[in-house]
């Protein structure tokens, strides 16, 4: 199963780099020894970036090829593919090649089409359940797309968190340093309050008593994260507001969700400062267990931080990160590589994240191949807290962190695997509705948007097969 090589259309990233360096097209073209008209074609995605030019860009600006990766385009193609699988488009069959071409040539129109489809799906849900209509998901999806556009990395906020960490007095530990800062700079004491858990709260500030209340039984790494959240809220509100005002979502609910996300991002970046964390991750070969002990944080916190290491010139491995519950509901999804998960319907049951629920607390490693022939190394494990009492019903959650096979050898999780032997690679899809694999015995429903062959002369592993796409 060979890995497909795709042309690199990196117009938006090339334009972003030029603007960041305050260069005109003529200036950059001169540096690269190409014509301004050719550069203009590259920036407009009319031409792919050739390998020799990619190398020159990386050497000139201290970047890695991953920085120019067309991840947004790959995710849009996957979204288009899944959307066009809806039966409503059964008379408008569109081959994958034409979808990819549409995303190349007119990404804004494709984005508008996807927005319209999401609105259509929401109206359908409301009509089917008029008494209790489902809330719209647009704000959450808007924030997810915004974060994805930034490759899950926010430079100003990350640098601010790193600078804050370096100025702390850590002689008594990080927790003591954070509490001391909150007391000295904001006059806030910390105190435990058992009643918080009953109210479903993880922390609360009483402004009159100048006190931060925290639950007594939470893990130390959770306490650290919540203190860092509060510091971000108190010390960097202006920076967060500036980022949202300048480039964030415009709709009110989406903007508020964006504020929450940036607050969490700051907290993670404070506990795991970029330069120190990247060096430790590379030295320890991205061993999450070693990293969590070294930084006294959780498996989930380490995994999420690994998916954000996209600082220009100091990139780590581009990971995708996904978190879901035992019912298959996706709670978080970010990707710094080409991996893209279905927006509608459940994930593929062959994915090792589901096996993680059968072995709580143990790491599951898997090599998988997606329908675009890309091969990934996936690391999955359950996370979350155990019940405090018999009557507790703790939420069962698992996460999966994945990188391309080309980066797998840099991690400890590839040890013992034959990365050149693809016979045991597990084929996974974006969910049955959009998956084109007809020979999968795990298929739960036929692929949508294609004519079915029920097999009058032969019967397959499932009682229906989709006829081939028309070219």
TrEMBL record:
Keyword line: DNA-binding, Transcription, Transcription regulation
Pfam families noted in UniProt: HTH_3 (PF01381), Peptidase_M78 (PF06114), ScfRs (PF09856)
GO molecular function terms listed in the Swiss-Prot or TrEMBL record: DNA binding; DNA-binding transcription factor activity
UniProt xrefs under InterPro entries: Cro/C1-type_HTH, HTH_RamB, IrrE_HExxH, Lambda_DNA-bd_dom_sf, ScfR_C, TransReg_Diox_bact_type
Domain HTH cro/C1-type per the UniProt entry, residue ranges: 14-68
PROSITE patterns linked to this entry: HTH_CROC1
Claim: Cytoplasm is one of the keywords in the record: no
GO cellular component: cytosol
Family, as annotated: Belongs to the short-chain fatty acyl-CoA assimilation regulator (ScfR) family.
Record-given protein name: XRE family transcriptional regulator
